[in-house]
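## tool: complex_structure
## caller: assistant
## args:
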Amino acid sequence: MTTSTGFDIRRIGGRIGAEIHGVDLSGDLEPALVSEINSALLEHKALVFRDQQLDDAGQLRFASLFGELTTAHPTVPSVDGQPQILPVDGDEGIRSNVWHTDVTFVRTPPKASTLRSIVVPPYGGNTLIANSAAAYRDLPEPLRELADKLWAVHTNAYDYAAPKSEKAAEYRKRFVSRKYRTVHPVVRVHPETGERGLFIGGFAQSIVGLGPSDSRDLLRIFQSYVTRPENIARVAWTPGDLVLFDNRITQHYAPDDYGDLPRLLHRVTVAGDVPTGIDGTPSHVLEGDDASHYTPPWPESRQGRRKGTRAPAGGPGSRQASASTRGREPPATFRPASADSSVSRSMPLVCFSGFSLMNSTAISASAANGVATRKSSAVAIP
Ligand SMILES: O=C(O)CCC(=O)C(=O)O
Ligand SMILES: [Fe+2]
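## result:
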């Protein structure tokens, strides 16, 4: 399909992902073009721009078209001299082979992530991206109704697999140097489209109000819908590509199948909002700071306007609505997950105080499904 601003959208999967052709991301992008890219992002959730050959500055410039940027990460170091760029370097043990949504252990996880390939192996080293809204729609009705009511505890400090090297051990130490635990809805309402998606992944380690065994089993069941092959796009990298994905309604996974071959990506993320469940209740912090060194805090004054499934007035969900998306209505292509998706329901508030994370023998991270079934070979997922 060719858009009115003249670029081509070529779908790469039936349910998620598109390649964008005919845009040079190093140039000045007109607001109308950025607006169409944003619409494509909302619809396809992951966009692949081939052979862009951007440098760090170009990646930062492009990402900031979609909103204010975060710093590289709440705990691990950035690229030298580039506080907003996270190196994803296989040699440093950064191999994200756990299904996850980026940085969900803080209250305001990024809205979108950009990954830029600098060195890629000749085979393997792909990135898989899953559509968590399609996963939600796939749930049988009784499971969907259950998910609607659940909240999960997300943390960066869980029982990772034993590090394979000293570098990996050091990385993990940094990764958990500040501990975060945040409660997010299991079903998040997308602030721009109103679409509902399963908001879980590798950092979701327990369900509020349930014990370790029930948490593990339920998270595994929900996660199995996210990771169905139908819901996944696979990006095979060539150097110079740039991928932009909507972190509010996707998960991703980087298969660790390239041995000792070098692989380096740079990641830049766009700051997000506080997630809300289907009744508009926002996420909240159980432990840790507000991560304001990482992402600008979302003003509480905006939170009140975000009830239900509609975007906040004047903004697409970023604290600083970009020119491209300010005041936009949900795209015509969007269909609500179910007929009642705009209905406000009351959620029984569980008492969170006194709730403790399950211990490491009771639960450990999973590579296969992203949660709670076995230890991951990943050292720590950034
Ligand atoms: O290595 C990749 O392909 C993805 C890395 C990742 O999960 C991230 O940087 O957020
Ligand atoms: Fe990631």
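## assistant note: Residues 70-306 form a domain with the Double-stranded beta-helix fold (CATH 3.60.130.10). Residues 307-375 have pLDDT under 50 and may be disordered. Handing back to user.
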